[in-house]
Amino acid sequence: MKVHIKDKNLAEHGKKRIEWAERDMPVLRLVKERFAKEKPLAGKKMSACLHVTAETANLCRTLQAGGAELVLCASNPLSTQDDVAAALVEEYKIAVFAIKGEDDKTYYDHIRAAIEHKPVVTMDDGADLVSTIHFDYPQIAENILGSMEETTTGVIRLRAMAQDGALKIPVIAVNDATTKNLFDNRYGTGQSTVDGIIRATDILLAGKNVVVSGYGWCGRGFAMRCKGMGANVIVTEVDPIRALEAAMDGYRVMPMLQAAEIGDLFCTLTGDIHVIRPEHIERMKDGAIIANSGHFNVEIDIPGLKKLAKSERLAVRNFVDEYTLANNHHIYLLADGRLINLAAAEGHPASVMDMSFATQALSTEWVVKQADKLENKVHNVPREIEDWVAKLKLASMNIEIDLLTEEQKQYLASWEMGT
Fold first, then answer.
1. Where are the alpha helices (H) located in 52-188, listed in sequence order?
2. By mean pLDDT, which of 119-133, 178-192, 263-277, 328-342 is the weakest?
3. Exposed, middle or buried: residue 413 (CB in 10 Å: 0-12, 13-18, 19+)?
4. Tell me: the pLDDT tens digits for 39-89?
5. Cα distance between residue 195 and residue 35, in whole Å
6. Of 1, 114, 233, 333, which has the fewest CB atoms closer than 10 Å, so is most exposed?
7. 77 and 104 in contact (C-beta within 8 Å)?
């Protein structure tokens, strides 16, 4: 079995982390138990390009239990947990190509290794795997039954491909599933982004002016957590409806040029490019901190920052680089602009990934069952999968809900009864 990991001797510690995460993933555990009995993925070659974390390891074990022949590579150079990668290889016999801190060449070498596995099903977090297949391995796309996409950035890219007529495979937008979007993006990203920033900087959020760029579900979650810790939250947006919602939620809303002058901490969560640019950076106060929690390190114009700087001092702390501008203001960039929650912390808590990865696994099973029936476009997760995951999650939390009476069902299905 070909693999490329940092150190196989880290496996014992990685296994402990994987088992600890599994304790808080009851829904995925139920899926794994059924998959082990029914083998819905038997003989199917799969390649997954995901953040290599303890939670992801439990998804991989679930797919393996279902019979999949799986290869895993990293979806971000800084998100890999090396001990988890080692455990997947040594303890669970899953091929992994991922090393924390790998350079761009190694990153894409790992993606190519996953593609050369010749998968018939893929799983992506950011669409790098699918886009590389389309650019460099178009012949492989012909045999792919479908792909699951986990993140907002990836769905944006894939919808653009579909709109241009370039998408050659069916894709399931797992990111857009309610059981993923509302919970993983809001509560997972919200908590883990705060965690990453605090681990990297050790700053107190209370009393700080925190600028949240983007008020999608990830931005909402991060803003909520910062507000709860006493920060003065400012939101920047380009979407008028989201901007209005942020204002109604009690946050100050303004353009980035205005926010740049008063912010202490800036975090981008948009999925777009160059949200923070030189014209913003040169207005920032001395000591301003810039972070990103979007998938790619393009939301902050890092080349523009480097051109503004008269000097730079790397690694003043782990994942903190200092740039001194011409006006002698010091600007601190976290994790080289890569997603801070996985670069400097451990990513989302297992409890919230439980829903996302259960949805991933069940969507994979659905794609295999729907082989040759799906159009080459971006599809939503079937509602029955969403409901099943939500009901099981409620049950795992010992929460019961009401059921419709027959009278209520009839009323909702009729139109005759009025006031």
1. 54-65, 82-90, 104-115, 128-136, 138-141, 152-163, 178-180
2. 178-192
3. exposed
4. 999 999 999 999 999 999 999 999 999 999 999 999 999 999 999 999 999
5. 34
6. 1
7. yes
HSE-up (13 A, CA, CB side) for residue 336: 12
Q: How far apart are CA 65 and CA 105, in angstroms?
A: 32
Side by side, which strands form the sheet with 378-379? 95-97, 69-74, 45-50, 121-124, 146-149, 171-173, 378-379
Cα–Cα–Cα angle for 170, 293, 304, rounded to 5 degrees: 105
**Cα–Cα dist 255/232, whole Å:** 16
Residue with tokens 């939301």: 299
Whole-number Å distance between alpha carbons of 66 and 255: 49
Give one DSSP letter per residue of 255-322, joined into a string. -HHHHTTT-SEEEE-SSSS-SB-HHHHTTSPTT-EEEE-SSSTTSB-HHHHHHHEEEEEEEEETTEEE
Q: CA angle, corner 57, sides to 52 and 63, nearest 5?
A: 120
**Residue pair 236/256 in contact by the 8 Å Cβ criterion:** yes
Backbone angles phi, psi at 343, to 5 degrees: -75, -45
Domains of the chain: 8-180+348-396 (3.40.50.1480), 186-343 (3.40.50.720)
Question: For residue 55, which of 375, 355, 397 has the smallest C-alpha distance?
Answer: 355
Within 8 A by CB and 6+ apart from 146, the residues are: 121, 122, 169, 170, 171, 172, 367, 370, 374
φ/ψ of 122, rounded to 5, equals -125, 160
96: its two tokens: 């992994």
Confidence of residue 181 (pLDDT cuts 50, 70, 90): confident
Name the token pair of 14. 């990685």
C-alpha to C-alpha distance for 271 and 294, rounded to whole angstroms: 6
